[in-house]
Here is the input.
Amino acid sequence: MDELAALVRAIESQESYKLVDIIKYENGRRYIFKSPMKDGEIYIHLVFHRGKLYLEIWPRSFAMPMAVYDLRKYPAALPLAVVDLLRRA
Here is the structure.
């Protein structure tokens, strides 16, 4: 849980991300961030569920995430770099 708190603080400290919602589950939490793009917005979901930590990338009109990263396997910098590329495109 400490890893999640540190990651949430790191993302919140960046001007391009805004925390819009926190959803609490019985076995975890979901933090939803919004980031502006040229043609709309993209949503970043940090999901902590049953001891696992995931980062999901949700474009505005998608019914399911465009990409899901297991943050135990990949550093958070990788998916956030993908988001920055999408924001510039």
